[in-house]
Amino acid sequence: MASRLVERLDAAIAAAEDPLQRECLKAERAGALARHGLLDDARFALAGLRSQAQRRRSPRLAAWVALVDGQIDHFVSITPKAMDKFRQAHSLAVEAGDADLQAIALGWMATLNFNASRLPALAAQLREALQLASPQNHAAKARLGLVLADAHRFAGDDSRSQLWYQFAREHAIAEGDTSMMSALLHNIAAMRAGRIGLDDAFGQGDIEAAHRALLEAESTANYDWGAGAAALKTMVPLQARAQLLVVLGRWDEAVALFDTHLGRARQEGMAHREARFVAERAWCHLRRDRPREALKDAKQAAKCIDAQFDADDCAATHARLARVWRELSREDEAQRHQVLADQALAAYRAEQQRWREALAQALDGLG
């Protein structure tokens, strides 16, 4: 299904009289296809644009090519390897004197820095991009709004998070970008599920909140089907639905999702979260009266726990493993993980405070 953005770009390409502008619009269209999960189509479109960029020696067109190249990499796997291409896009946009394109590139760099929890770079890029983006640069403002909303949600500032989600939604609607609307729904569902799962790992699960969040996660999946979005298919099943099914005690369904999607999640750049997912599966196995499988998963989770870099994931994983080992009558292991869980949770709360302060400083004076 073609989004309104793609349809608008098709019309603009057909109407463009300037050949260079036409090629830049084609690159923008390829980026829209990439964000929609149509990666083969985006690659095909980009192949022709590369030769045009080399022949025309236009830094603006080369910036668009680098940006879309990075987007394709990002939607294959949410790993940092796209960063070099976004940096190149930003550098070329600076050379071209295109402030709006600089803002878009900075928005994508901020996305990757948020995923990697690199707070200083994230805050600086958000501030610079907000200063550069013109009022009608809906693509940049939707992207920046999403990162700011997620960052405030991570920081525990829900009221400001909601304001930025609304900001991103308004600009995504103005842009006609259904892929951005999908990303908004994905991120809201995943972050809500993560918080509910964290509480549940410490024995403080909220069943009603989990029910509501699961409905939202399933609605997100339905939106993707209707909009035709196909990128990063494991995010909702694992980051939202499976974790919520654990809270709700729907053990068999949760295990089925973990079994189906864990392998692909590694390929899509979520290897650093594997310990948390496997620890959740271990808990499910215990509830299903399968201690052998629970023991195997607990050992596997412990092996890959050092790959985690988010304090909330560390806290949830250790807390879940503490409960698993206690159920397996391994009190020494349970106590060890409980101490580590409490330490990680305290570190997470302190990190949230640092994020709130850094975000407030980044936005100071911007209105």
UniProtKB/TrEMBL annotation:
Protein name: Tetratricopeptide repeat protein
